[in-house]
Model the fold of this input.
Amino acid sequence: MRPVRVTVPLVALVLLCALEVSGQSPGGNLGAQSLRPYWHVFAAYAIAWLLIGGWIISISRRLSKLEKRPTD
Amino acid sequence: MAGDRKLRWTGTGLGILGVAGMVLLMWQVAFWVPTEATMGVVQRIFYVHVPAAWVGCMAFGIVALTSAVYLWLRDERLDMAAQAAAEGGMVFTTVMITSGPLWARVAWGTWWTWEPRLTLTLLLWFIYLGYFMVRASTENPERGKRFAAIVGIIGAFNIPLIHLSVVWFRSLHPQPVVVKPEGPTLHPAMLQTLMTGLVSFTLLFFAGFLLRYALEHSIRGEVPTAAPSRAHAYGRPDTMEGVS
Done:
């Protein structure tokens, strides 16, 4: 349940930012560019969140699991 | 295990600060920073690409330093630090080499080109992949640690080459805009956003580094090592309790 509670707001935040960026004028020439750059920006930030977040969360989970294990 | 707990709390604290910094970065990138005139919106990848590159190189610098001292002292803590830094370095370098092509596809019209900086960066990524492969490839763990330390040191020689490759060779990659003799030539808002990214990524790296170190320490605390370390022979303790 905990990962869902963390992941959903993060994905929502990234989507919100992507939508906001897509609404801005790229160098004052809105008609000249396709939607591709916006998706690339979104993908770059999503990958960063997923990789860094995934790394830290996986370490935390392994640490918690190790702590919960009964010591002989 | 009081030392481990302290590391965990410090790591968690840094992680929370790092996430707060990342949220601020997202806000700045989406609502605050001006759009670059020639590249347009895709230039915003810069605020994730450059911090990831900085952290990736810093992490591998830590790997080289701790590995060199490990080879001298044979202190387990240094090997654990090198391993934790290498893991973080791999994560951030992967962010760098995936965000770069996403920018390049729009800016250059191609995902990848074999120009010096890109090639050397990919080489760095493979060297540190080799770091983990070498570590796991020997039956004797002590030998694996020594071999990995040597790979870690050799790999770090690539870092100054990556930085200077855009100056030394004819390169497609943009020239430095921050680290240059005459000072940064970025718009102040862009520089501020970049700084937010640099600080956030650095905090997140050290959060992961400390947590990974604590994890490795807990794991190795349960499994006795094959040989006593040289540091132990010098009278230095092998555990974090000794230093805290």
About this structure: The mean pLDDT of chain A is 74. Chain A touches chain B at residues 13-14, 16-18, 20-22, 24-27, 29, 33, 36-38, 40-41, 43-45, 47-49, 51-52, 55-56, 59-60, 62-63, 66-67 (CB under 8 Å). Helices of chain A lie at 2-22, 36-68. The CA atoms of residues 60 and 66 of chain A lie 10 Å apart.
